[in-house]
Amino acid sequence: MAKFVPTQSSYCSMQDENKICSFDIEVLTGPTEPLLHSMSRFWLINSGEGTLRLNNRSYHIKPGAVFSVLPWQISEITEVVSPIQLFVVAYYFDTVNEIIKAFYNPGSRQLSIIQALMKSPVLYLEGSQLESVRTMFLSIKEELGMESTMDSPSSQSPGWELRNLFITNKLIEILICFMRAEKMVTAALKQTIEPCEIFHYLYSHLNEKITLAKLSKIFYMSESSISAYITSTTGLSFFDLLNEMRIGKTINFLLYTDFTLEELAEILGFVDSSHISKVFLARMGMKANEFRNIYQNIGDLCRIKDRRDFYTMISYIYRHYSENLSPKLLCDRFRISPTELNQILLYQVEMNFSDYLNFIRVNRASELLLESTKSIMEIAIEVGYNTEKTLTRNFLKFRSMTPGKFRQSIRLQTTDWRERKDPYAKETT
Asked: What is the C-alpha to C-alpha distance for residues 18 and 94, in angstroms, rounded to an integer?
């Protein structure tokens, strides 16, 4: 029987699933089995020595080392020379990353936090730098208590309502240490892409149409090898792994938008509302709408109203796609600059304004092509284009085929494309 790499829990705290962060102390006396992390972590090594293998690269474990583990990376302690004692901070990377990009980047600079942490996943600190970072870890412990001892401060303690804000700032301080270290590293020789980086690529491109063929070109591996690697490592098929990763982003949209499940399915890459409902129920143990009803009123992290406004803007584009939308119209309506508009969209849906609008229009056109007998010109006008040529150009971009070819080929495959597990499976086989 194949030996799968265990996957870490999707919660940073088993005491309280709503926590954005948790603190604990661990002691390792021997090597560990590989672990696939769905939750981000910082490790601060207080004592001991050994070797960590992170995403197929080895790093020296010693006092003063601080490690960053990102979602869907694989870690393994391969050697323990002397018992290792470490502080562990588990946190929701997506939440912190979103706050940094939306509220801590006034110059609208291009920040690639993920790339920085992948290039420099370890800091070797000493002296005042080490004490400064240790103080950050201990400040988080003082606010949250220890996970393993269930020692959590009371919600009645003074300043409790500011806890999330305080914790978020401490996490950002730690991230900044890593990002500054990465900036100081001179440009290195291009490294060979490791198979384990497939997981991180998938996580970073969830809203795109990801196929085995596309991964094959990026990682220079055959489709069958990639599929076999994913299954042998995680025990999940390619599509099941994508669904697992998409659940995290689904939670954010359920908390901060009023999108229907059908709309969320399209935005996040699920097949339809039934598909997202089944995956969510299986993974979270409750229905998506039930989750929304329970948690939406308490989900405003750090009381940041603007975060909900960002989703409102995305919702507006989604529901007015057939109108004559323009960046200026959106900027005037939501009182933001063109730079802020694209910055928000690039983070939230990983597309600029033009691509997101055309993405929605092409999806609507796809439905009309399959569910009606309207001409391509009629469909083009209905979804917001002035000419058939404009629809065709964007259809080629997002579907890699013309509208006519799409209507013909998909109907030849199935009479109801929504019933299929993957409506574009023909392209990935």
From this structure: 14
Q: How far apart (Å, rounded) are the C-alpha atoms in residues 355 and 351? A: 6
* Matching residue, tokens 């560990």: 32
Q: Which of 187-201, 249-263, 328-342 has the highest mean pLDDT?
A: 328-342
Structure confidence by residue, pLDDT tens digits, 53-86: 987 789 999 999 999 998 888 889 999 999 999 9
Summarize pLDDT for 149-202 with one digit per residue, the tens.
766 666 556 666 688 888 989 999 999 888 887 655 433 333 445 666 788 778
* pTM confidence score: 0.52
State pLDDT tens for residues 346-357: 766 767 788 889
Strands 57-61 and 40-54: antiparallel
- Amino acid, res. 38: S
State the SS3 of the chain: CCCCCCECCCCCCCCCCCCCEEEEEEEECCCCCCEEECCEEEEEEEEEEEEEEECCEEEEECCCEEEEECCCEEEEEEEEEEEEEEEEEEECHHHHHHHHHHHCCCCCCCCCHHHHHHHCCEEECCHHHHHHHHHHHHHHHHHHCECCCCECCCCCCCCHHHHHHHHHHHHHHHHHHHHHHHHHCCCCCCCCCCCCHHHHHHHHCCCCCCCHHHHHHHHCCCHHHHHHHHHHHHCCCHHHHHHHHHHHHHHHHHHHCCCCHHHHHHHHCCCCHHHHHHHHHHHHCCCHHHHHHHHHHHCCHHHCHHHHHHHHHHHHHHHCCCCCCCHHHHHHHHCCCHHHHHHHHHHHCCCCHHHHHHHHHHHHHHHHHHHCCCCHHHHHHHCCCCCHHHHHHHHHHHHCCCHHHHHHHHHHHCCCHHHCCCCCHHHHC
The tokens for 409 are: 């080929």
Label residues 105-125 b or e (16+ Cβ within 10 Å = b): eeeeeebebeebbbbbbbbeb
CA distance 282 to 72: 20
Residue 18 pLDDT greater than 90, yes or no: no
Residue 383 has pLDDT above 90, yes or no: yes
| pLDDT, mean over the chain | 78
CA atoms within 13 A on the CB side of 83: 4
Nearest to 241 by CA among 72, 62, 13, 357: 72
